[in-house]
Amino acid sequence: MGSSSELFKVHTLSEAIDSLKPYVLSFYERVEQIPLEESLGRILTKDIPATCAVPNFRKSTMDGMAVRAADTFGASESMPALLECLGEIRMGEAPTKSLAKGEGILIPTGGMLPEGADSVVMVERLEHFGETLYGVTKAVAPGENLIEIGEDFTEGEVLLSRFTKIRAQEMGLLASLGMNDVPVWPRFQVGILSTGDEIIPPEQKPLPGQSRDINGYTLLGQALASGADARHYGIVKDNLEELRLVLAQMLKENDIVLLSGGSSVGLRDLSAQLISELGEPGLLFHGLALRPGKPTIGGVVDGKLIFGLPGHPASAMVVFDALVRPWIDGSAINPQVDPLPQGVLSQNLYSGSGREEYVRVKLVPHTEGWQVEPVRGKSGLIRTMVLADAIVHIGLDTEGIEAGKEVSFRLLR
Predict the structure, then answer these.
(1) Quick one: which of 29, 128, 354, 384 has the most CB atoms within 10 Å?
(2) SS3 18
(3) Are 409 and 372 in contact (CB under 8 A)?
(4) Do 237 and 317 have their domain in common?
(5) Is the pTM of this model over 0.85?
(6) What is the pLDDT of residues 274-291, one digit of tens each?
(7) How many domains does one find in the chain?
(8) What one-character-per-residue DSSP string does 171-231 give?
(9) Domain boundary among 329, 363, 392
């Protein structure tokens, strides 16, 4: 079990994630089958191979005439190639006739090519000379204006890999495979609790020394935006027994529990103590080499993740994005290097050696892209997050970045 010896033995973000990982791998073995129409934003639990070739027939990409390309060679407006039209292919029907030399058949976009045809002449290049006689005014090459069988994908090819987040285009791909039910992770259940004698609900008027609950709602919004089912459990004062009862309930009902406040060193900070008392392995870290976010705590209680986030609003939001979101989207156990947008830094950024820093920035249109402007302000100010368009990450061993340098940023909007 974790102990008070962990108190402010500062861990890197990577170390913190690695310490939690062995206890929660079972999260990612769960599977829920959901209807395709409900799959947007969900995450696949397994690789999806193609069950058939798509398309499974040669199809036209133009309205026009299916032909043998060799019959059009040398055709021009002054001397069109003459073809005998065998009729018209209808959408959704297989052709009943095959083409011989000097023959063609009218075809719509998406129509199935007949046997013998190897290209399509677009309708603008056809002249109708009456009855079944047509002229082609420009030659086509074999394979022109058509899609071959399996050109999109072939049977057995892995099209979507495990951990893929389903977008509209993935929904369309799954539909093309005939998948009415999709295997995804169940949504993570996230419980959020605000703590502290000074915290009051938004509807109350603060007395001197009191603050309205901001973090409960920012964290709720972040959890929902990350794809979790989230619930705000309200506010608990700095009372050990009351906090113990609420936490025990939250751990039964959720996969991830977030506490806002109660994570700094002090006599009245109870969260770290309770994490170690409520179950195994308990507290795993107290303190991150992170700015903002140093007083973050984290642990595992009987297979459930539990985090104590800083009380400062900007700090809590940054820590959620860096430490909590990766469990919800799976990137904590399946890291991927996603290309991030870049911009030119407008001011020098300084960072203390030995810690990672997440800097709030505004994005200003620039002649050749984006200019990245730091949003100055303390981590206790929620407005700095409202003003920020993105976050710039300064690595652990980087002391700063000079103005004029290109930096990558993660969008917040």
Answers:
(1) 384
(2) helix
(3) yes
(4) yes
(5) no
(6) 898 999 999 999 899 998
(7) 4
(8) HHHHHHTT-SEEEEPPPPEEEEEEE-TTEE-TTSPPPTT-EE--HHHHHHHHHHHTT-EEE
(9) 329
